[in-house]
Amino acid sequence: MRAPGGPHGRRHYGRERRARTLAYVYLGIVVLSAVPFATEVASGASGGFGFVWMILATAPLSLVTIITLDAESDAMAGVLLGAAIVVPAMVNAWVVWRIFRGPAVNADDPPAPSIR
Fold first, then answer.
1. What is the pLDDT of residue 13?
2. Would you call 22 helix, strand, or coil by DSSP?
3. Do 21 and 33 contact (CB within 8 A), yes or no?
4. For residue 34, what pLDDT is reported?
5. Which of 91, 85, 52 is nearest to 66 (CA)?
6. Is the peptide bond before 7 cis (omega within 30 degrees of 0)?
7. Helix (H, G, I), strand (E, B) or coil at 105
8. Is the bond preceding 60 in cis, omega lying within 30 degrees of 0?
């Protein structure tokens, strides 16, 4: 009997390439939303919408993380804030991939119909 997921133990999904592309596009949007915030921090300006764009791009998980974040010490505030953005972005990208990848298929099964 063959192990699930093919001869090397890796599962294959009907629309895995498309789902991976969508997850990468999402991560690209998150990175692009971080650019205004990084320029605000580098220039010393405050009061811009750069941070808001990052939070909106990684919502809803970043909202929960920011609300529960207790950044009392100034030394750890930047590290915690970075983690509060990066971790939700990675989890959201994984969820996008899981939603759009389609069902698992065996090598013996016919290919899944493409979505057009």
1. 83
2. helix
3. no
4. 85
5. 85
6. no
7. strand
8. yes
Q: Extract the tokens encoding 8.
A: 């090397």
In the chain (116 residues long), the average pLDDT of successive 10-residue segments reads 54 87 95 85 78 87 79 62 85 94 73 66
Phi and psi at 13, nearest 5°, equal -125, 150
Local structure of residue 72 (DSSP, 8 states): -
Number of residues that make up the chain:
116
Q: Are 59 and 74 in contact (CB under 8 A)?
A: no
| Cβ atoms within 10 Å, residue 52 | 12
Helix axes 74-100, 61-68, angle to 10 degrees: 160
Contact 85, 58 (CB under 8 A): yes
